[in-house]
Amino acid sequence: MKRQDELGLSEELLQLKNANSAFLGDGVALQSYDHYRSDKRFADENNKIFRRLPHAVAHSGALAGSNAFLRAEYAGVPLLLSRDDQGRAHAFVNACRHRGMQLVEKQAGCVKRFTCPYHAWSYGTDGGFMAAPHFDQGFAELDKAELGLRRLECAERFGFVWVTIDSSDDLQFDEHFAPIADDFEALKIAGLVVVEETVLDIKANWKLLVEGGLEAYHFKVAHRNTIGPFFENNLSTFQVLGEHLRSVLPRTSLAETDRTDAAFRLLDHANILYLMFPNTQFLVQQDHVVWIQANPRAAGRTELRVRTLAPAEATEREDAGAYWEKNHRITCATLAEDFAIAEGIQRSVNAGLDQSMIFGRFESALGVFNDTVKRCLAG
Question: Looking at the structure, do residues 166 and 212 belong to the same domain, yes or no?
């Protein structure tokens, strides 16, 4: 984040605090319960949002070195990521071109070729077809050059490997992320390493999990026994960056610091949450980043991977293991409070009542997010 943005956001938050006011939107908004429970809507989201927009499938460090590979899954599609011997990252559908068998079963590793466990068709790490038993006898009329793995759009940026499953509408990656690119380049995430990871199966719609991080109205109530005492009461601000959002959540220490000091950093006195639309969140803290990766499974179910990323040099200290494990544990305990609430909301939503959510003026980021969802569904 640029220095002028840090100071400007700090000033905005302190002015709101002094005025005893939250950041207020234009008015109250309503959101139908059906938005969170409809199977048809979820299918539309899968086809028009999840499969159309880039998703951060892996940290670049997970593909360290030539011929590294990683198996993943997103939006119902089995994925295979690889790095060829030229260092380029690739993304494919993890399915043999012969009969559709899952090509790779191991979660990660390093190989020079992928061999199908069904009939031994093999492929290079660049996805090209290499060989198959009895090929000339059984498949002579086929062009080997056309039998490579089903390739998916893949880009390596900001320290992540991004995959777009359906790139038929020519979405431009750089254009999509341009409004938020400067912030993410400055975070230098490529130089971070994953030190802790937790995988959760949450019985709630993916949008409820996004919404939980976009307002501070609940902090003093839902998080009263964890992080609540360290943050201001219902005080935050957010900025719309293209389809993405940046939310700033100030701690109580912000009002007590000298912002004219050259050493002042907003990160020392606030958490900054980035929503990379639609469903990837990055919680940036003083000395690390929490990557919250959502994989929506159904209208009322979401798989979440919560990863703590830290500077490589900070993992070499003698006490590093215990330090990062403690940070990750605190993060997960706080998020667990949000997730339990989301599951409770989902139970109400699933009851079939004809009701609507009510977003107050200081919850206007939720309305902005859901409006973006609706625009994408409208095509």
Answer: no
* Domain span holding position 146: 55-170
> Is the CB of residue 164 less than 8 Å from the CB of residue 53?
yes
3-state secondary structure of 327: helix
Same domain, residue pair 210 and 356: yes
- Would the pTM count as exceeding 0.70? yes
CA 289 to CA 61: how far, in whole Å? 15
> How many Å apart are CA 105 and CA 115, to the nearest integer?
11
CA-CA distance, 158 to 297, in Å (whole number)? 26
What pLDDT does 317 receive? Answer: 85
pLDDT digits (tens, 9 = 90+) for 77-124: 999 999 999 999 999 999 999 999 999 999 999 999 999 999 999 999
CA pair distance 123, 144, nearest whole angstrom: 11
- Taking the C-alpha atoms of residue 130 and residue 96, their distance in angstroms, rounded to an integer, is 12
Last residue of a domain, one of 170, 199, 232: 170
Residue type, 49: I
Q: What angle do CA 276, 16, 255 make, to 5 degrees?
A: 90
Give the separation between CA 48 and CA 377, rounded to whole angstroms.
6
